[in-house]
Amino acid sequence: MSVAGARPNFMKVAPIVRALHDAGHESVFVHTGQHYDLQMSGTFLEELELSAPDFNLEVGSASHAKQTARVMERFEPVIEQVRPDWVLVVGDVNSTMACALVTAKLRPVLRCRLAHVEAGLRSYDWTMPEELNRVVTDRVADLLFTPSRDAHPNLAREGLEARATFVGNVMVDTLLHQLPRARAADMPGRLGLTRGAYVVTTLHRPSNVDAPAALSVILDALHRINRDVPVVLPIHPRTLKNALAFGLESLLRPLRVVEPLGYRGMLSLCDGAGAVLTDSGGLQEETTVLGVPCVTLRVQTERPATVTDGTNRLAPWPLTGDGIVDSWRAAMASGRRAVGERVPEGWDGDAAIRIVAALNAGDPCA
Ligand code: UD1
After folding, report:
1. What average pLDDT score do residues 264-276 get?
2. Distance 35 CA to ligand 1 centre (A)
């Protein structure tokens, strides 16, 4: 049973569902419905060739406690009905942790086991909801599939190394599979942009977008960059809602603000960008594989391999207008790499196959 809930989960689940199918396993796909808008969910399922979910829990948006509780309440009867050998949860969203807890508590009764895909990432920033989700999920999972070698010391520190298996990055499976179709979609051309001569930005972290001061520093910097090259901002619903509530429309207006894009459109847009400025985790990895310079607008990253091996850099913290603009200039000056050049080990398109092989090797009812 594979579980996805929010936008960044779908590209991680898609190659796993496909590899399970190819290996002849019976596989059930559960969507918690944490994300539900067409642009945040429906488009992704279609483009990623994920069949309609076998179960949609339709939990929607709510406070952390309510959303987590709703997923738990609605997931419990599903797992009791299906009685899977394995439950696979991916990433670090509320749905990941909620389903992990339910599975772990039912383990003695149902004799099912839990695997966490993208295990061992740590920001050591306890103000991030995702950090809590990661730590709890890893603690209760039977098998920890890591995307990069740097996850292993983190797990060792928590006494979890024995459960860890290095498999590489499933997001990259999806990226390499979809890149030809993404390029054919030619999103830069459709938006009238010149390849290499525009910036793509995404923002949605509560620490960046939930307070007027933080959001206005970033939008102001984008405004300045936009005087040199067009800045395209596919806007997350949370960010749009807050920018309007804080009266920051005047900073948004000069930017190329577009609705959240589907997977292929976003991949095509980032592939053609001169640089990407983001607070997303996934985009730090995707830009590294695409060879596009990335500036991460966060105090730290739980994906350090994107900085040491890849094309990512952190803007100086605390964020300031000058700091962001200077980092962007340095990123542009660093230039592009070829797709797949100098990527971390295991970011090769075969991570899902390694996951299924590891599941085959384990005894589901041990
Ligand atoms: C969630 C994840 C975050 C991930 C992000 C990707 C958690 C704690 N956070 O954050 O790790 O990087 O998804 O997008 O799980 N909304 C809509 N339509 C939707 C979904 C959300 O309008 O389909 C709006 C609602 O106003 C909602 C807000 O976005 O209240 C936040 O949604 P939520 O799922 O709580 O968290 P994200 O900020 O999307």
Report:
1. 98
2. 6
